[in-house]
Specification:
Blueprint (H helix, E strand, L loop, with lengths): L19 H23 L6 H22 L10 H25 L6
Helix pairs in contact: 1-2
Amino acid sequence: MAQHQGGAHGHDAHGGHGSLKSYVIGFVLSIILTIIPLVLVLNDYVEGTAANVVLLVTAVLQFLVQLLFFMHLREENKPRYNLMSLLLGLLIVLTIVLGSIWIMTYNTVAH
């Protein structure tokens, strides 16, 4: 009978997992990026367009923290299938959102 070794098929028992330090840093950054807009908006430090900008910037930073610290996007070896899938997904979402905004903005029927 053939005996299987842990690394015989290219599977590493600890590969692809982040360290505790990485998870803690990601968690702390996520908490900070959640509290910043909450405090600024609830205490009326920013209003209107400035509030929207703060929310948008912290949301994008939160997205990057999630990708880097929890989805392990930076630890990936070549070929980068996950990155390519992510970029394709973002392109599709961007096309749908911008197309919807365009249709709602210019929804006039020419007579």
